[in-house]
Amino acid sequence: MRVIFASSEVVPYSKTGGLGDVAGALPGALQRCGVDIAVVTPRYTGQGARPGDVITQQIGHQIIHDLAVPFAGGMKYAAVWRDERQGVPIYFIDNQEYFGVGYIYGAGDFDAERFAFFSRAVLELTRRLGPPPDLIHCHDWQTGFIPAYLATTLAGDPWFAGTATLFTIHNLAYQGIFSPDRLGHFGLGWEAFQHGFEFYQNANALKSGLYFSTALSTVSPRYAREIQTPEFGNRLDGLLRSRSRDLIGILNGIDEDEWNPATDRYLAANYSSQLPADPAGKLECKRDLLSRYKLPIDLDRPVVAIVSRLTVQKGIDLIAQSIWRILDTGARFILLGSGDRDYEGFFQHVRDTRPDQVGVYFGFSTALSHQIEAGADIFLMPSAYEPCGLNQMYSLRYGTIPIVRAVGGLDDSIRDFDLATLEGNGFKFHEYSAEHLTEKFYEALMIYYDRDVWRRLQLNGMREDLSWNRSARRYLEAYHQIVTRKRAA
Ligand code: ADP
Ligand code: GLC
User: Fold this and answer.
1) Nearest protein CA to atom 22 of ligand 1, as residue
2) Ligand 2 closest atom vs CA 170
3) Taking the domain 2-253+469-488, which CATH number applies?
4) Helices in 8-144 by DSSP H: which ranges?
5) Which of 22, 72, 64, 28 is nearest to 43 (CA)?
6) How many angstroms separate the alpha carbon of residue 24 from the centre of ligand 1?
7) Residue 376's closest CA among 347, 356, 396, 400?
8) Distance 304 CA to ligand 1 centre (A)
9) DSSP 314
10) What DSSP string describes 414-464?
11) Could you give the CA distance from residue 13 to residue 84 in angstroms, rounded to a whole number?
12) Lowest CB count within 10 Å: 222, 310, 418, 435, which one?
């Protein structure tokens, strides 16, 4: 099984959110299952990375100087760099005009052109990497052009005759909408527009991916069902319902080497579930976290945390509405995030009002995100919607108890704690309301002060298998089915 894995973010080279984490870890797990896999991603360079962007510029070595990519009515050229991470080859498409601009996303209409070029370059690169791939695994709207090129512009090209596509939806709300006039410039014709990209008089790269790919997947079973309803479907639920038989949900795993409290290099102390009688390491991390945020060192009171993009998706409104009640219990609140300026302003105001209880950091910091997972007691994720979510799983691994709303992957990964049976790994509420979040918080608080029960709850999560192994096997099964179906057609 020869697979090309195309993603606009790959940890540790680039990241704005969970897609980067997935693309950094899943290919390795697939390779361990015997897949011959290579990752392709842009090589982002340039000064002035925006908040939320992590860009590593020093990578690998150049293997191709002049990859010719048919684009913009002629040829455009890219260099290609290669690095290897845990045995998986990673190829970087290097074009200064498109990726030397100092950010990953954020250029409006120009982003469509940047990622159309990337998509077209991925296809040209496969011709230089050995036999044709059996499958190209695409991720989110940035790669939605790939299945369109294969189904239209390159439909008669014998090189790709046996190549199937799997399109994975990480977030249906980001669609890559642009003016249809641009399609000709990208080397895509009327056929691609009429059948795939067309979306309320605009062009939509995500829709193209959903329409033209051999099969579809998303990052949790529950989100796979939700997106077929008008409430979660972002105006694409009709198309998704029509492709229901080709759509599966596979829950993400986590990179257990990167997120392991026993070895995590960012932590003040390491700890693990093997030492149930010794919570000292985690306590040391809590002390360290409080001092980083310049809060009084009081280890008895719970630290409640969030690490998040500050957007409507993440239920930040619910946190804003319940924050004063949470603080009135004496809990500490720590935030790491960036995004919406209004949210930042609000949480700065909360911090200024309760400087002894609240710490905020607006920006992107990988080290802090690890230190928070380790040092906090409770992690809030009251999302409005959540395709999968990774932080609740990082929390489980670090003995930090997640309070989540029962949507998407949060519902699939978190089981509400039951005091009678002592089963469950966190706290889960259903209705999108601050009252329900606050109630769950009170429930968690009562258990927090019962140290033995809390310890049991922590260990339930810390001992779970959250690795990529199981999910990788499910992807592999899917790959085989998809390739067989493609060949049969
Ligand atoms: P999403 O991809 O929707 O943002 P996920 O939970 O899947 O949500 O993944 C978010 C990832 O981004 C996690 O690895 C999280 O730790 C990281 N992250 C989010 N905000 C920040 C931040 N401000 N600094 C560092 N890491 C962050
Ligand atoms: C998206 C989703 C998030 C998911 C991540 C990785 O960013 O918002 O829920 O965990 O992709 O699949």
Assistant:
1) 364
2) 11
3) 3.40.50.2000
4) 18-32, 96-99, 109-126
5) 64
6) 14
7) 400
8) 17
9) G
10) --B-BTTTTB-SBEEE-SS-HHHHHHHHHHHHHHHTSHHHHHHHHHHHHTS
11) 12
12) 418
Alpha carbon of 371 to ligand 1 centroid (Å): 14
403 CA from centroid of ligand 2 (Å): 18
CA of 151 to the centre of ligand 2 (A): 27
The pLDDT assigned to 86 comes to: 87
Grouped pLDDT means (10 residues each) for the chain, 489 residues: 97 91 97 98 78 64 96 97 94 95 87 98 97 98 98 97 98 97 96 95 98 98 98 98 98 96 95 70 96 97 97 97 98 96 98 98 94 98 98 97 98 98 98 98 97 95 95 98 94
Q: Of 394, 450, 449, which is closest to residue 425 (Cα–Cα)?
A: 394
What are the residue ranges spanned by the domains of the chain?
2-253+469-488, 280-465
Identical fold between 2-253+469-488 and 280-465: yes
Measured over the CA atoms of residue 27, residue 28, residue 31 and residue 36, the dihedral's sign is: positive
The span from the CA of 58 to the CA of 61, in Å, is 9
Instruction: Provide the token pair at 277.
Output: 């009688």
- As for ligand 2, residues whose beta carbon falls within 6 Å of it are 17-19, 22, 170-171, 219, 252, 386-390, 409
Q: Does residue 82 contact residue 63 with C-beta atoms inside 8 Å?
A: yes
Measured by CA distance, the residue closest to atom 10 of ligand 2 is: 389
What is the distance between the alpha carbons of residues 428 and 222, in angstroms, rounded to a whole number?
15
Of 199, 217, 200, nearest to 208 by C-alpha is 199
Name the residue with the closest Cα to ligand 2, atom 11.
Answer: 170
CATH architecture, domain defined by 280-465: 3-Layer(aba) Sandwich (3.40)
pLDDT of residue 48: 57
Pocket of ligand 1 (CB under 6 A): 17-18, 21, 307-309, 336-338, 364-366, 369, 388-391
- Pocket probe mutation, ligand 1, options 142, 171, 390, max atoms within 8 Å of Cβ: 390
- Find the 17 Cα to ligand 2 centroid distance in Å: 7
pLDDT score at 275:
56
Ligand 2 centre and the CA of 315: distance in Å?
14
- Give the model's pLDDT for residue 277: 47
Residues 123 and 154: beta-carbon distance below 8 Å: yes
Instruction: Give bridge partners of residue 92 from the DSSP assignment.
Output: 41, 81
Instruction: Check residue 243 and report its DSSP letter.
Output: T
Distance (Å, whole) CA 289 – CA 333: 11
* Pairing of β 74-85 and β 88-94: antiparallel
